[in-house]
Design a protein that fits this description.
Number of strands: 15
Shape: globular
Order of helices and strands: EHEEHEEEEHHEHEHEEHEHEHHEHE
Number of helices: 11
Radius of gyration: 20 Å
Helix content: 25-40%
Strand content: 25-35%
Structural class: alpha/beta
Length: 316
């Protein structure tokens, strides 16, 4: 089978290679899955750079999100069936043709969702749910508080704008260019701010760095700053966070921490919520291109292309 492998940290376009490997038989409690679609997310590429090297063991196969069908059952697996589509979560490894994973980390996919839809039902939707729930918890009652969303034109940014408005908050889309603002305004009737730090009650930040520092300084007393990514490559200034700790609640949301601590029933309920919203069209993500796994170099090049118009998927 073909798989993508990282054997050294560095630029993903240079260090992710393609290799042929033997299929592994599932052990007790495990299943073999033929991957039908796998997503490319920033969270897949950041570990490749070595940013999390203290908890990343080389070599590894990237890919946290995707959908596949079960091809073999290990001993003792009686709640899944051959041919059933599942979302295998809990670890990376989906950028390959076949994957062996514990059945406990596989969640069934409804028949009415396409492979493309199912392949994007995990990372962004569940992260968005956790972020909006965190804002609700902080304020206790949604009363039109102004909540900024960085990288607002991204797939998860658009989800957050939708969910915040539904919850009773006033979402503020934070973007870097007039062209991005124009594109976003075609599909969202929300306040859009370009390269500025408006007065806000809270911020959901995927960028970090100096842009994040500016937003942190502008948050009103009693507000919250929740960081869930660092697309800039830099975290917030720790001294700034410490200095304003009494005025602004700071937290970092990492979906993996919740997934590995929440009861399975709670994760399953979150997936049902995601499936329902995707089915209704509220959390659907636009797809730019579906690449064959053998075309991974082209897919990685497209991922960094400013002209990209949606998510990229791999079809192993």
């Amino acid at each position: 089978m073909l798989r993508a492998v990282v054997r050294a940290f560095g630029d993903p376009r240079q260090v992710i290679g393609l290799e042929e490997a033997e299929r592994m038989a599932p052990g007790p409690g495990e299943v073999e899955i033929r991957i039908r679609r796998a997503a490319i997310n920033p969270s897949d590429l950041i570990p490749v750079t070595g940013a999390y090297r203290s908890r990343t063991t080389l070599p590894f196969v990237p890919g946290f999100e995707g959908v596949g069908e079960i091809t073999r059952l290990g001993e003792g697996v009686d709640d899944l069936a051959i041919g059933q589509r599942v979302l295998p979560i809990g670890a990376s490894g989906l950028w390959q043709e076949y994957l062996v994973r514990s059945a406990a980390w596989c969640f069934a996919v409804p028949d009415d969702l396409t492979d493309d839809q199912a392949a994007m039902a995990y990372v962004n939707p569940l992260t968005a749910f956790r972020l909006v729930d965190a804002v609700k918890t902080h304020f206790g009652l949604a009363a039109g508080q102004r909540v900024g969303v960085t990288a607002a034109a991204s797939a998860i940014g658009r989800m957050l704008l939708t969910l915040l408005a539904e919850a009773g908050f006033h979402p503020v889309a934070l973007v870097r260019s007039a062209a991005t603002a124009e594109r976003l305004a075609k599909s969202f009737s929300v306040e859009i701010v370009i390269a500025n730090a408006p007065s806000l009650d809270a911020v959901l930040d995927a960028v970090g760095g100096e842009a994040g520092n500016g937003l942190f300084r502008a948050i009103r007393r009693g507000g919250a700053f929740i960081q869930y990514g660092a697309l800039s490559g830099s975290q917030l200034d720790p001294a700034l966070v410490t200095a304003r700790r009494e005025d602004v609640a700071f937290s970092f949301l990492w979906l993996r921490n919740w997934v590995h601590s929440a009861p399975r029933a709670e994760i399953a309920a979150a997936f049902e919520r995601s499936f329902a919203r995707i089915r209704a069209g509220y959390l659907a993500s636009t797809i730019d291109t579906v690449f064959a796994l053998s075309d991974l170099p082209a897919a990685l090049a497209r991922q960094g292309d400013p002209a990209r118009t949606g998510k990229l998927l791999l079809a192993p």
